[in-house]
Amino acid sequence: MTEGPTDDSTAPSSGADGTPPPLTVAASLAGVQGLVLLILAVLELASVSASRPGVGLSAAAFFAAYGAVLTGAAVALWRRHGWARGPVLITQLIVLGLAWNLRDQVLAAAGLAVVGVVVIAAVIHPDTIAALDGRAEDDDSEA
What's the pTM value of the predicted model, to 2 decimals? Predict the structure, then answer.
């Protein structure tokens, strides 16, 4: 009895570089969110009011710090570091809350909600979890 090619549907799918597509989506969208926060920091600095400089500077510092952390987490997620899941997931929960607060502006709220849900789904996708767990095992064996 000869066996034909087997269809291993339980094996995680991956792109050309071995990165699962959901992980690529999550890292890419989180990176875009981080870059948007960095742009908002620059725009906030450019519009600091002379009457209330502390508010503008602190908002700019917050956006810059959060943007840097989120961009770093996106890069770490791309490199399959499991610690990056937390900051990315927390950010998406904040994004969903922001979408709810902006529900009167339907397009903005819908855009935020869609991105938040897509990133959450991509981060908790089994292929992403498997890829991140595999990276953690590789790190342990190198130490």
Answer: 0.80
